[in-house]
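Retro notes, item 3 of 5
We never archived the inputs for the flavin mononucleotide complex last cycle. Fixing that now. Sequence and ligand:
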Amino acid sequence: MKKPDPINEEYTFEDGLIVSSTDLKGIITYANRRFCKISGYTKDELVGKNHNIVRHPDMPKKIFKEMWDTIKQGKEWNGIIKNLRRDGKYYWAYSHVTPIVNDDKITGYSAVRRPAFSTEVEENIPIYEDLLEKESK
Ligand SMILES: Cc1cc2nc3c(=O)[nH]c(=O)nc-3n(C[C@H](O)[C@H](O)[C@H](O)COP(=O)(O)O)c2cc1C
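Structure as it came back at the time:
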């Protein structure tokens, strides 16, 4: 029997919030315990790395461009993100990303994520597949 490809295996998490903060470039400055557990990395492995450490190849570039365009303007962004764990499994999260503002200046960004509902995932899969296909042309 063929061994399952871990990239096609979902890691489900039912509760808890994944919290992370980054600097202006998306370098992780803080990761809570939940983020470590769900991503499969230790705090030391996450802090200091770009947040794309958990980027999944199924995620269209356009989604992150929209996210960055929004948060750089000082606005909040919400979206469904498919992320890649250290062991190759994936997890879907509903993400809320906000700029951290000090003295009217954006000094970094923060993200809070909960497990995505299956309805949210099912709604987004065809949209992301479509975007990804367009990006590959
Ligand atoms: C606060 C914050 C949280 C982020 N969370 C994620 C995330 O969970 N997954 C992800 O792939 N990218 C996340 N990003 C975006 C990455 O920094 C990066 O732009 C994205 O993964 C695309 O990678 P690329 O720039 O190498 O194409 C986050 C960025 C910020 C500022």
